[in-house]
Specification:
This protein is an alpha+beta fold. About 25% of the residues lie in helices and about 40% in strands. It has one domain. The chain has two helices and eight strands, in the order H-E-E-E-H-E-E-E-E-E. Strands 1, 2, 3, 4, 5, 6, 7 and 8 form an eight-stranded antiparallel β-sheet that branches. The chain is globular, with a radius of gyration of 15 Å.
């Protein structure tokens, strides 16, 4: 897998999780751009992409929403675990991600780290939108 494919896979998993979550008005971290990070793959330097989002309007049934997210993740090869105490939270790993979580309190949040592939994260920093400096 190339770094671009790994980055696109990260976006795809985030999109699918948002669709499964049952909330509204999602805000993606960093203007929607996954952040390239250093990692090690097969003993050499690699790149992974981290991403996340939060919902401004949470769903009406956090337990059902957590189950839908877990079902979606399982369908794409992510090993999942739901923790219900104190609030429904789903944790996952494997398949198209290194690790991922979906939390329901205090609001709905998604945090994910993509798979590590050979590459240099510095080659992808120019792809990240940079906000204009404040005056």
């Amino acid at each position: 897998m190339t770094p671009i494919e790994a980055r696109d896979q990260t976006n795809s998993v985030l999109d699918g999780t948002i669709a499964a979550a049952g909330a509204a008005d999602w805000v993606r971290d960093r203007n929607g751009s996954p952040i390239p990070e250093e990692c090690t793959v097969d003993g050499a330097g690699g790149v992974t992409f981290g991403h996340g989002a939060y919902a401004r309007v949470s769903g009406d049934d956090p337990s059902a929403d957590a189950q839908r997210v877990a079902d979606y993740w399982t369908s794409i090869g992510i090993e999942t675990r739901i923790v219900n105490d104190p609030t429904p939270t789903v944790f996952g790993r494997g398949g198209p991600v290194n690790a991922i979580s979906f939390g329901t309190a205090p609001g709905y949040t998604i945090s994910l780290g993509g798979v590590c592939v050979p590459g240099d994260p510095f080659d992808y920093y120019d792809d990240i939108p940079t906000p204009a400096p404040s005056s």
